[in-house]
Write a structure and sequence with these properties.
It is a single chain. The chain is of the alpha/beta class. It is 45% helix and 15% strand. α7 (158-169) runs parallel beside α16. This is Glycosyl transferase, group 1. Residues 397-565 form the Glycosyltransferase subfamily 4-like N-terminal domain. InterPro entries: Glyco_trans_1, Glyco_trans_4-like_N, Glycosyltransferase_grp1, Pol/histidinol_Pase-like. It holds the Pfam family Glycos_transf_1.
């Protein structure tokens, strides 16, 4: 069996590969031909060649070695518009190379020459838009010119490879006849296109990791297999991580040749090309070198050293900053020299983040070219139906996390292609969750129970790119939300988010500072206007965001529902409140449920209590937890029932065992708890500000109080207590009305909205 890497480069590819390479005078490759040969042999290749750009010098250096043959990657052009194309010619001689160099300016003349001289040739990376000129008509002309296409290329994505193969297979005999008549060319020798593979390695790291397979043993067997279309490809597809490391290794070698990098250069050599550890007596006496030890310590800081060198390189640069911070943190005494050394190393190596980001963006553009061509050829998008759901809160107690948990449960039950991306110190095991270990964690001011977890941006970026998500959804505008937005711009993936929290109001409530509030408002405006779609939970906040300056065409109002199996009047327990109220004797209970924090306007709830505390027919209860609870307990622990956080059946019993739901919050964008209370048979009394009021019809399924007036709340509660008929009528209306809020149906609708209608189930294809 033949295994041969049919696309790879040596130091003979000595021209700069781009603008910055030209300025720095860095070549495309610095790999010695003999090293290339030995590496390929070690990795199981049975035949060896080199395909340097428009030169055979590298091949000539190893041409005397067994199993080698001479090849080159030819740069050619369509004469109509100078669109650049790469063609691989194999088993050529020096005279043929010289002829090719004279003819390569015209792709048609080049193909004529290759066919006339029986030179086996392959179209390299067909969908790679090298100069921005590649269009559908060029791909159609490829189908008329080339029998053999390179599908697997070690620097191109799996998505691009699949689309390339799909397009190649779409050229039926009838289609080729039609195209031949249109373009007046046809140089094919057989009807079907066959496929090859190569690593396209320039840096020496991935030699032989992508290759062509054919029956036989000799070069003639290989050529015959290519000519008859009986080759196939195996190995690894490309990804931005591998390409970044190739670029970094080339850059490192180029800079080393012009500048003395000293210890840093030696350390990078050890990182990119680790040598097997020796166990000689000298090594045992002197020990391993400090560079190897440093590299290993950094990699092991959040993982372990493995055989995959790309993962080790990536983990080294990903871990370097947290490793450095940890070293500084563990200093027993402040040592300025050591701290400076640590920070210096972190600063130098953190600059490679820019290299990663730029390469990931460039690869995203390459992938996007393939996706656009797919749409042009087939009339629909290449969509896998996968959604990345990013959230800064998952385990905490708040409305966003509760909605996320409900969606998480639904996704598991239905097998939707949604992955929940979070950052938490907890160890999480689920096929539907990807947890990124935080690099840094601190508590949110005024919300000590909500930690701010900051993961490594590169890790999140690499994961999202590797998983080929079609949509990024951020439930929150926190760290993960901002990462989602940034990554969406780098990878050119649609970005959707939701407005769950009235941040400007929250900030003003806690700071009373207009300047800070205005800054937050500007940032919120920037964040949401950068999205492709914004989910808004109420018309109230749709109008608020429109006034704030959010593009109304981006916003979509979505509804949320309630599980009436979980929350309903059947859970009513006449003895429930005896657990929290010592002298409880079947009085009416006015209840608040939710986060116990100042921005929920709980001072209004307290004021209503104060006005009714002498009424023997009513008691007050607060269900939930939060930063304001401790302060309230100091004054009202013996006057108001505080249950703390409840969930499951205990929460359902608390709701159903109360009578009125007093929810004075003016900052809630929706108010899940209002629907839960209504489903449990409570009569809601709400403020006329905020989104929660949209859940009720005033004086039909509840009451809306103007200006959050405590006296008005008091009057309404007294009126309801004294009027059995009114209470019964309102409750009947509520229980009928709440049937329109089926939670499961509305959650599915939310998934459709946040996925831009691209969501699929696992193993289900989506066409858009």
């Amino acid at each position: 069996m033949i295994k041969v890497d049919l696309h790879l480069h040596s130091e003979a590819s000595n021209k700069p590969g781009g603008y910055f390479s030209q300025k720095l005078k860095i070549s495309e490759s610095y790999v010695k031909p003999i090293k290339l040969y030995n590496t390929l042999k070690d990795r199981g290749m049975t035949l060896i060649t080199i395909t340097d750009h428009d030169t055979i010098d590298g091949c000539l250096e190893i041409a005397h070695l067994p199993d080698t043959f001479i090849s080159e990657e030819i740069t050619t052009y369509f004469p109509e518009d100078r669109c650049k194309v790469h063609v691989i010619a194999i088993d050529i001689n020096e005279k043929q190379h010289q002829d090719i160099q004279h003819l390569r300016g015209n792709i048609y003349e080049l193909v004529d020459y290759l066919q006339k001289n029986n030179i086996v040739h392959i179209l390299a990376h067909p969908l790679y838009n090298m100069d921005g000129k590649l269009k559908k008509e060029h791909i159609e002309k490829f189908a008329l010119l080339f029998d053999n296409w390179e599908i697997l290329n070690g620097t191109r994505s799996k998505t691009s490879a699949h689309i390339t193969e799909k397009i190649a297979k779409s050229f039926t005999k009838e289609k080729l006849e039609e195209l031949a008549n249109r373009y007046n060319i046809y140089k094919r020798t057989r009807d079907h296109i066959s496929f090859t593979g190569g690593s396209d390695d320039h840096g020496g790291i991935d030699l032989g990791t992508g290759y062509t397979v054919a029956e036989g043993n000799t070069l003639e067997d290989l050529k015959q297999a290519i000519l008859t279309g009986k080759t196939y490809y195996e190995g690894d597809y490309g990804n931005p991580k591998k390409l970044t490391h190739m670029v970094m290794n080339i850059g490192k070698e180029g800079v080393k040749r012009r500048y003395n990098l000293g210890d840093i250069g030696y350390l990078l050599d050890q990182l990119f090309d680790p040598k097997p550890q020796s166990h000689s007596i000298i090594d045992q006496i002197l020990g391993r070198n400090s560079a190897s030890i440093f590299i290993e310590n950094v990699i092991k800081f959040k993982g372990k050293v493995i055989k995959d060198n790309h993962e080790n390189i990536f983990n080294f640069f990903s871990n370097l900053l947290p490793y450095t911070l940890n070293q500084i943190k563990n200093q027993k005494s402040f040592d300025f020299d050591k701290v400076s050394m640590y920070l210096g190393k972190a600063l130098i190596f953190s600059t490679v983040y820019l290299v990663y980001l730029s390469v990931y963006k460039q690869r995203a553009e390459e992938k996007n070219t393939s996706l656009n061509l797919h749409k042009e050829f087939f009339g629909n998008g290449h969509v896998e139906g996968k959604v990345a759901y990013l959230s800064d809160t998952f385990f905490e107690i708040n409305g966003v996390s509760r909605t996320t948990q409900k969606l998480f449960k639904l996704v598991q039950e239905e097998g939707y292609n949604v992955k929940f991306l979070i950052s938490h110190k907890k160890k999480v095991e689920s096929d539907y969750i990807k947890n990124f270990e935080p690099v840094l964690t601190f508590d949110l001011p005024e919300y000590e129970d909500i930690p701010i977890n900051i993961p490594n941006l590169l890790e999140v970026l690499d994961y999202i790119e590797s998983e080929n998500f079609d949509v990024i959804y951020s439930a929150t505008p926190g760290v993960m939300g901002i990462y989602g937005l940034v990554i969406s711009k780098i990878l050119n993936i649609p970005f959707v988010t939701a407005y769950h929290t009235d941040f400007p109001q929250y900030v003003y409530r806690y700071t009373q500072d207009h300047t800070i509030t205005n800054i937050v408002t500007s940032l919120i405006k920037l964040f949401y206007n950068s999205a492709d779609r914004v989910l808004v939970p109420s018309k109230e906040y749709y109008n608020k965001l429109k006034e704030l300056g959010i593009n109304k065409d981006k916003m979509v109002v979505f509804r949320r529902g309630v599980n009436t199996q979980k929350f309903n009047p059947s859970y009513r327990d006449k003895n429930f409140w005896k657990n929290y109220i010592k002298d409880y004797n079947n009085q009416f209970v006015v209840m608040y449920a939710g986060r116990v924090s100042k921005e929920k306007d709980l001072d209004v709830f307290i004021e209503v209590y104060e006005r009714m505390k002498n009424n023997p027919k009513v008691r007050f209860a607060i269900v939930g937890d939060g930063p304001y609870k401790k302060e309230l307990l100091q004054t009202y622990s013996s006057k108001i029932a505080f249950t703390g956080f409840l969930e499951g059946e205990s929460l359902a019993r608390a709701y159903a065992s109360a009578d009125f739901f007093l929810f004075p919050s003016t900052t809630d964008t929706f108010g899940n708890v209002v629907l839960e209370a209504m489903a449990s048979g409570l009569i809601p009394l709400l403020s006329d500000k905020g989104g929660a009021k949209e859940n009720i019809v005033d004086e039909v399924t509840g009451f809306i109080v103007k200006d959050n007036n405590p006296e008005e709340y008091k009057i309404l509660i007294e009126r309801l207590i004294d009027n059995d008929t009114l209470r019964s009528s309102i409750k009947k209306n509520i229980l009928q009305y709440i049937q329109n809020f089926d939670e499961r149906d509305l959650l599915i609708e939310m998934l459709k909205l946040l996925s831009l209608e691209r969501l699929s189930k696992v193993n289900q294809e989506v066409v858009v």
